[in-house]
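Inverse folding, one chain.
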């Protein structure tokens, strides 16, 4: 895991790679943890590339591939909120900001029982997850 970031979501999936019994070949499906590490690596690489190319303090908020669109909101305190969506979805940075200002502040920051420096397991809070889930399901882009 990173020494500068915090995992906000926790995988409930097994961490092993799937093997198809018929052909014995490994599946192309990544586990949640592997995908999270790849996404964090992409964000870190893009930030470094932007700093080197622009020579100014610029940042990116989205990027798109043919398969998905990544939306990023980074707080001044260094928390990164990332959402992957369909490539045709409009910017969702405002939703990530709402997640930070609403459920994250209410159920994580203001909750003394949630460890704020959880880099291994992430933030595991049912109220936070439920609130974010309701917020996302209410969006027209995810309906």
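Residues assigned per position:
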């Amino acid at each position: 895991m990173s020494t500068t970031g915090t995992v906000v979501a926790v995988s409930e999936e097994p961490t092993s790679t799937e093997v198809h019994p018929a052909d014995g070949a490994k599946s192309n499906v990544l586990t949640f943890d592997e995908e999270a590490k790849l996404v964090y690596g992409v964000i870190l690489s893009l930030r470094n590339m932007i700093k080197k190319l622009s020579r100014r303090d610029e940042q990116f908020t989205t990027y798109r591939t043919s398969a998905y669109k990544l939306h990023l909101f980074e707080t001044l305190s260094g928390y990164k909120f990332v959402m992957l969506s369909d490539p045709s979805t409009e910017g969702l940075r405002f939703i990530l900001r709402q997640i930070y200002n609403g459920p994250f502040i209410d159920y994580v920051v203001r909750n003394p029982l949630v460890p704020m420096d959880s880099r291994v397991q992430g933030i595991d809070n049912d109220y936070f997850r439920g609130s974010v889930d309701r917020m996302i399901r209410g969006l027209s882009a995810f309906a």
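The beta strands are 62-64, 69-74, 80-85. Confidence is low (pLDDT under 50) at residues 1-21.
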